[in-house]
Amino acid sequence: MMNFQTVHIISKILKKLKLISVADYILGIHSLIKNRKINRDFLLNHKDFPVPPARLAFDAYGNIHWPSYFDQGVNSSTVISDIINKEKITSNFKVLEWGCGPGRIIRHLRNLLKNDVELYGSDYNKKSIKWNQKNIKGIQFIVNQLEPPLSFQPAFFNCVYAISVFTHLSEEMHTQWIQEIERILKPGGLIIITTHGDLTTNRLLSHEKHLYDSGKLVVRGDVKEGKKWYQAYHSPKFVRHNLLKSFDILHNGRFDSSIQDIWVARKKEIGNQFTINFI
Ligand SMILES: C[S@@+](CC[C@H](N)C(=O)[O-])C[C@H]1O[C@@H](n2cnc3c(N)ncnc32)[C@H](O)[C@@H]1O
Q1: Residue 279 lies inside a defined structural domain of this protein
Q2: pLDDT given at position 23
Q3: Rounded to 5, what percent of the chain is helix, strand, coil?
Q4: Does residue 221 or residue 164 have the better pLDDT?
Q5: In which domain, by residue range, is 122 found?
Q6: Domain count, the chain
Q7: Considering only CA atoms, which residue is closest to atom 25 of ligand 1?
Q8: Alpha-carbon torsion angle 266, 132, 35, 203, nearest 10
Q9: 67-163-127 Cα angle (round to 5)
Q10: Which of 120, 146, 188, 258 is most buried per CB count within 10 Å?
């Protein structure tokens, strides 16, 4: 088994040689073959649960493994719904998953929420959104571009969440998207995001760890932005003092059993700074 730093060095060489998409394709086929039996059994036992095309799942999750797509989707959705269920839900309460991919999390959310809410999902991958629109009912799905804006009015949402999306963006996109999320959130609205934090620092090379420790965003680019091989690492210092600096941070911890951190924060009320003890 290769360690993370070796994987990084190999992927850096493949990016330079413009061979990363070929390697990604081969890894996708490998995942498909390796999980063939388990996936077939899953589909036999879950006839009413449509799964996305394998290439879309591999693009978003780096594996094609339907039991994980299901279980991790339910677990992540439970974390999100537990947070939203603590909110005062009024009529027309609106929730957006930005970067929803092929629906792994948002498709479970309605069943886990105590109250009726309007659900929206967006992604810059048109194929994922098209698949969601056809296969996941009761949620409005829209395509956005790599860069903002989203097509929503200011203060439209009570909650915006983004799981493993900032983890694949440049510093410029962090700045632009956090402002965009702030624009579309109501005052007092919730933002929930995940980041590559302290549990992922074993992946960093020493110069990257130095940047991380000094509170700078570490970005590994040289490939299409927003894709899984484009990676960003966020020290808690960066999140507190930069990314979420204009929000009231309510909670930071490990996101479910994953290696990512979760951050829950609230858009400031106009002229009324308040904090709530959350989890
Ligand atoms: C690692 S996947 C996570 C998908 C989903 N959030 C989940 O956890 O199941 C990252 C997703 O972010 C999407 N994405 C990346 N950059 C984006 C952007 N600028 N706007 C919207 N979606 C983006 C990708 O297309 C992909 O679906």
Answers
A1: no
A2: 82
A3: 45, 20, 35
A4: 164
A5: 4-267
A6: 1
A7: 125
A8: -30
A9: 70
A10: 120
Residue 101 alpha carbon to ligand 1 centre in Å: 5
In a domain, 273, yes or no: no
Q: Which of 78, 97, 109, 165 best tests ligand 1's pocket when mutated (most atoms within 8 Å of CB)?
A: 165
Is 104's pLDDT higher than 80? Answer: yes
Instruction: Determine, yes or no, domain membership for 277.
Output: no
What are the pLDDT digits (tens) for 243-252? Answer: 999 999 999 9
- Bridge partners of residue 96, in order along the sequence: 120, 160
Which CATH number fits the domain that encloses residue 225? Answer: 3.40.50.150
Query: Is it the case that residue 204 has pLDDT exceeding 90?
Result: yes
Phi/psi region, residue 172 (left: phi>0; alpha: psi -120 to 50; beta: rest), is alpha
pLDDT band at 262 (very low <50, low <70, confident <90, very high): very high
Rounded to the nearest angstrom, the distance between the alpha carbon of 196 and the centre of ligand 1 is: 14
Judge if pTM exceeds 0.85: yes
pLDDT-derived band at 8 (thresholds 50, 70, 90) equals: confident
| Ligand 1 centroid from CA 166, angstroms | 8
Domain membership flag for residue 259? yes
**From ligand 1's centre to the CA of 218, what distance in Å?**
19
The listed range with the strongest mean pLDDT (2-6, 39-43, 90-94) is 39-43
Give the pLDDT confidence score for residue 277 in this predicted structure: 46
The answer to whether the CB of 100 falls within 8 A of the CB of 58 is no
Structure tokens at 174: 């962090």
Residues enclosing ligand 1, CB less than 6 A? 60, 98-101, 104-105, 123-125, 128, 144, 146, 163-165, 168-169, 226, 228
